[in-house]
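User: Predict the structure for this protein chain, please.
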Amino acid sequence: LMSAAGVWGGLVNPGGSLRLSCTAAGLTLEEYPIGWFRRAPGKEREGVSCIANNKDGRTFYSNSAKGRFTISRDNSLNTVYLQMNELEVEDTATYFCATCQVVMGSLFGMDYWGKGTQVTVSS
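Assistant: Here is the predicted structure, written as structure tokens:
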């Protein structure tokens, strides 16, 4: 139903940038809060960012994403993006998009999940 992909591939040097795209077939993303999650090898899944489904487009970022990542929507393309700048080796993970909810400062994935896309930050 949902799929995530990295533009220009998923391998980038430290300090570089990458934009992830989340699209969906049969699901209108603008009706849902949509977020990005990641799982690094040997680590638990981590919520990265979430964008609200209402017009104010409120956003949430994890501490590790603040100041470096930007989440946005293009409703005409039924797509949610995650622009990642100043990438670090520690950002290496499989990234997933999903419907999301922020509860008391924590980000949770909800009912719909996309297939993951690998992001590797390495020199």
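The mean pLDDT is 90.
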